[in-house]
From TrEMBL:
InterPro entries: Uncharacterised_CoxE. It comes from Iningainema tapete BLCC-T55. Pfam families: VWA_CoxE. This is VWA domain-containing protein.
């Protein structure tokens, strides 16, 4: 269970000088409006996650550690030898010497590399604000320590619809069609990180419909797909997340469930709906 604690920083105690600004006539920028909306969503998510009871928020108390995430990525490998022969094949070289009686040229082979490419899709802002630290951990560890052939990280809000974004602020957009068409289907696996509507505790037929359409399209361009949901499983019932979990293998965010998601991306079959049990 996520725990939330509000801590005061030294900046909170700074004295703000009075001004004569007329707030009723002040025009707010889109960024300020978005920030205010996010803060409202955070409050809603916190209240709903604990059934309208207060609880402390500890941002860094993750249900899965940095090291565990890193180890999980390293299980997601499919090695092959590609490229220029640069590594010594000792066994083949010994056999060649035994056959020829002399070592003229050692036997070289291409280096073993991980062929898997990861597509990481992250739900950003709104009810996902409390989980930004974890989403950043997923992106950072995959990009820096996952040792994939390639990592593509895109962001969306609520559900992918027409566009994905290369940045967390939703400024650098790319159409979903362009994004998917550039993927090598034989090498790419996809992990989606989103509460799927469970944080708000409601059901959205539009969100379910758009997500279903996207998953169907996504399946044509990737080998396997798994979904990580930061909201505990018991809170999926009667929400959009419950229906989406019937469309794609969905897992909670903890060490055991994260490794289950990795197994799905490795090709270990899990019947749809098992994640609801």
């Amino acid at each position: 269970m996520w725990k939330i604690r509000q801590t005061a920083s030294p900046r909170d105690e700074e004295i703000i000088p009075e001004t004569n600004i007329n707030l009723s006539k002040t025009v707010l920028s889109p960024e300020v409006i978005r920030t205010m909306a996010d803060e409202i969503e955070v409050a809603k998510a916190i209240r709903l996650l604990d059934n309208q009871s207060e609880f402390p928020l500890i941002v860094n108390d993750l249900p899965v550690t940095h090291r565990q995430i890193k180890q999980g990525w390293r299980y997601l490998r499919r090695f092959s030898r590609e490229g220029t022969p640069i590594e010594l094949d000792l066994e083949a070289t010994i056999q060649k010497v035994a056959q020829q009686g002399i070592l003229l040229n050692p036997v070289l082979v291409p280096r073993r590399t991980n062929r898997i490419e990861l597509l990481l899709l992250i739900d950003q802002d709104g009810s996902m604000v409390p989980f930004h630290h974890l989403s950043q951990e997923l992106a950072d560890t995959a990009s820096r320590g996952g040792r994939f052939s390639r990592v593509r990280v895109y962001y969306f809000h609520n559900c992918p619809d027409e566009y994905l974004y290369r940045d967390r602020y939703h400024l650098n957009a790319v159409s979903i069609d362009d994004c998917l068409s550039n993927l090598p289907p034989s090498k790419t696996v996809c992990l989606i990180f989103s509460d799927a509507g469970a944080a708000r505790g409601g059901f959205s037929s539009r969100r379910r419909r758009l997500t279903k359409f996207f998953l169907k399209e996504l399946g044509q361009y990737v080998r396997y797909t798994a979904w990580l949901n930061p909201v505990p499983r018991q809170r999926w019932e009667n929400t959009t997340a419950h229906d989406i979990a019937a469309l794609v293998p969905m897992f909670e965010v903890n060490r055991q469930e994260f490794y289950k998601a990795i197994n799905v991306l490795r090709g270990r079959h899990q019947p749809l709906g098992d994640s609801l049990r």
